[in-house]
Amino acid sequence: MENLTTWLLRQEQAGNIDAELTIVLSSISLACKQIASLLQRSTIISITGAQGTVNIQGEDQKKLDVISNELFCNCLRSSGRTGIIASEEEDVPVAVEETYSGNYIVVFDPIDGSANIDTALTTGSIFGIYGPDQQCLFNIDDDSTLDQAKEKCIVSVCQPGSNLLAAGYCLYSSSVVFTVSLGRGVLGFTLDPAYGEFVLTHENIRIPKTGRIYSFNEGNYDLWDEKLKKYLDDLRKPGPNGKPYSGRYIGCLVGEIHRMLLVGGIYGNPKNKNAKNGNLRLLYECAPMSYLIEQAGGKAIDGRQRILDIKPEQIHQRTPIFLGSPEEIEKLEKYLS
């Protein structure tokens, strides 16, 4: 069996990635192992529940939101290869003092689906890695947040998801699965708790062209566009086989996408009357996941255009998103057009 470390070294030897990116990805996998361990013991060591603070989006933070963010940042800082970090839990991007030579820009959501933590349901981490823009590298004396002018510069670095060099997620569920793409397909590595290593278990993941599962938060049904309602109404009607589509909703983007990569279907988080721009963040949730879906042969759109073509104007910019099996997305597009 091949583990993640060996696979990364093999990619480096083949010239698919450089040594610095190998170290960054290894650092991210280490953070994921640490988070997985904390999640398994969270109730025992009393780190469930609310932190009593809110993030920049006004969302209540869980204790593990804050702890996981620190773990990610510390692992990336210590790698010596990361220049700038942008996280859901940070107000603005953070430049890393220890890494003057570190060129990579890492964006991440340390705990996706944190509302599931207290009930021991599926959660995950999402990450994306961008290359450097030589005009936007800063030489600073200590860790510091960037002012608005520099933030705009970082946004220009983290441009459309089509610029991603690598992206992935780590699923924390009955198994811990580290799924990654370097732009040459999608692979999944499952954590073997006996050895503490991610072992290659899913090679060249390809999303089925169709699927019979849809994943929408139908509690918002009355707030959606009439065209989208018509689409969902038709999904619930029996098809040629006499059965309707099955509705599944976990409340964790990582869990939804992991299932979809393996069995197909469609996931949607559309705009609604209360959230004109949707609920999910473009830079560190939608773009990395859309990158993975496309690398696996699927499609990802905001209802009008390809997610990976959208240029973020703000670090925490939100967007509607629909992604999944190619034929299912094409079917949706006919309803929305």
UniProtKB/TrEMBL annotation:
Its EC number is 3.1.3.11. GO terms for cellular component: chloroplast. Keywords: Calvin cycle, Carbohydrate metabolism, Chloroplast, Disulfide bond, Hydrolase, Magnesium, Metal-binding, Plastid, Transit peptide. Residues 207-336 form the Fructose-1-6-bisphosphatase class 1 C-terminal domain. It is found in: Plastid, Chloroplast. The keyword 4Fe-4S does not apply. One of its GO terms (biological process) is sucrose metabolic process. Its cofactor is Mg(2+). Pathway: Carbohydrate biosynthesis; Calvin cycle. The keyword tRNA processing does not apply. InterPro entries: FBPase_C_dom, FBPase_class-1, FBPase_N, FBPtase. Residues 10-203 form the Fructose-1-6-bisphosphatase class I N-terminal domain. It holds the Pfam family FBPase_C. GO terms for molecular function: fructose 1,6-bisphosphate 1-phosphatase activity; metal ion binding. Its main location: plastid. It catalyses: beta-D-fructose 1,6-bisphosphate + H2O = beta-D-fructose 6-phosphate + phosphate. Belongs to the FBPase class 1 family. Homotetramer. This is fructose-bisphosphatase.
